[in-house]
Amino acid sequence: MPESDSELVEAEAEETAGEPLVRRSDQLGLGPLGDYIGFHLRLAQDASFRNFVRHTGRRDLRPGRFTALLLIRENPGITPMGLSRGAGRDKSTITPLLRDLERQGLIERRPVPTDRRSHVLALTPAGQTLLDELCEHAARHDAELDEIVGIENKPAFLAQLRAIIERLG
Question: CATH topology for 65-122?
Answer without folding.
Answer: Arc Repressor Mutant, subunit A (1.10.10)
